[in-house]
Amino acid sequence: MYLNFLSKVILTIFLSLGVGCNSYVEKNNEADKTQAVKSQILPSWKDNATKQRIISFVQDVTNENSKNFIAQQDRIAVFDNDGTMWCEKPLPFQLLFVFDRIKELAPQHPEWKKKQPFKAVLENDFATIKKTSWEDFLKLFSEVTLNRSAEEFKSDVLRWLNTAKHPKFKTSYIDLVYKPMLELINYLRANEFKVFIVSGGGIDFMRAFIPKKYGVPSWQILGSYGKTKFKNGKIVKLPEVVFINNAENKPVAIYRKIGKQPVFACGNSDGDLQMLQYSASGKLPSLQVYIHHTDNQREYEYGSEKGGFSIVKGLAYAKDNNWLIVDMKRDWKVIFDAKTLNRK
Questions:
Q1: 304: left (phi over 0), alpha (psi -120 to 50) or beta
Q2: What is the average per-residue pLDDT within 2-11?
Q3: Among 17, 194, 230, 313, which lies 20 to 30 A Cα-Cα from 284?
Q4: Are 106 and 100 in contact (CB under 8 A)?
Q5: Do 196 and 79 contact (CB within 8 A), yes or no?
Q6: What is the CATH number of domain 49-89+176-341?
Q7: What local confidence, expressed as pLDDT, does residue 300 receive?
């Protein structure tokens, strides 16, 4: 009788545990499913707090039942290009393109041998080149593209991007776009954000490749630009800089061309700080993101030095204002797309 009683007790406990186990298994299955879904979002990002903050923000502002809901027409996202969307070392790629064009055109301009910064470029004098201002580089850029039509210039850029080789990675420059960033802008677009590229680079240089590579149309690209004219049915470039889209000029360009404050802003240097501040000052919920280059093995490590690549002010401001700092070494599984990177 004792055995029968004990058996009943054991059976009752077993059944109780069984129900509990089923409930536990079901909860775990749901958790696994949720984790699997999250893993499919931004797959090149590590599953950590950085990735989760991006996903949480997007899910929150696109949820109609959330107090932070943002209407589709106000979902404006802006991204810097150099160092944010693709590699910018050893120098921004547009500058390297200009240098190669100078060398191509040098036989037609013997005066360049004595004129700076042409002389420094022809002699590979990087000490002098590094002292040259971004404004002078843009003037230099205008000079070497003088009287090129928009279509001729686009052809020049694409030819260079696909044939010139990066000194470290030994692959075409067009291959050095950050895979995690392409996933990010695609994720935003899938959630009905309108993505704009807002860069200090030349607008015509970026329009040559960004629409196809990033999926961002040419009219959603804001950059520095020079004078142009209409001649013989074509747009022709002139050697005069009109607007340098960097630092405090980025919010100005956004105001003029977009007409709305972005709710998502991403950059990688002090030159992007004002753009992120402009985003943060809006009335709608927003997220500001800094990309920090910390991976010298897979890419480059920089930002603490003074100069055009500095992020010192930006990082300090980001930490004080709870902006999101993406650490490339910590937060990205991969940096470049292996399929394209291995295409020599």
A1: alpha
A2: 39
A3: 313
A4: no
A5: yes
A6: 3.40.50.1000
A7: 97
Which pLDDT belongs to residue 327?
98
The closest alpha carbon to 323, from 62, 82, 83, 57, belongs to 57
Could you tell me the residue ranges of all domains in the chain? 49-89+176-341
Cα-based distances in Å from 324 to 29, 64, 151, 268, 317: 31, 24, 39, 12, 11
Asked if residues 75 and 192 have their Cβ atoms less than 8 Å apart, the reply is yes
Q: Which residue has the tokens 């921004």?
A: 92
Closest-CA residue to 92 (of 100, 84, 101, 83)? 83
Token pair of 201 as six digits: 């680079």
* Tokens 């470290």 found at: 168
Global confidence as pTM = 0.88
**CA pair distance 175, 177, nearest whole angstrom:** 6
CA–CA separation, 282 vs 254, rounded Å? 13
Where do we find the tokens 């299955």? 29
CB–CB of 208/158 below 8 Å?
Answer: yes
- Average pLDDT of span 18-47: 63
Using a CB cutoff of 8 Å and minimum separation of 24, what contacts does 2-9 make? Answer: none
Listed in sequence order, the residues at least 6 apart from 343 whose beta carbon sits closer than 8 Å to its beta carbon are 171, 172, 175
| Full 3-state SS string of the chain | CHHHHHHHHHHHHHHHHHHHHHHHHHHHHHHHHHHHHHHHCCCCECCCHHHHHHHHHHHHHCCCCCCCCCCHHHCEEEECCECCCECCCCCCHHHHHHHHHHHHHHHHCHHHHCCCCHHHHHCCCHHHHCCCCHHHHHHHHHHHCCCCEHHHHHHHHHHHHHHCECCCCCCEHHHCEEHHHHHHHHHHHHCCCEEEEEEEEEHHHHHCCHHHHHCCCHHHEEEEEEEEEEECCEEEEEEEEEECCCCCHHHHHHHHHCCCCCCEEEECCHHHHHHHHHHHCCCCCCEEEEEECECCCCCCECCCCCCCCCCHHHHHHHHHCCCEEEEHHHHECCCECHHHHCCC
Cβ atoms 325, 155 nearer than 8 A: no
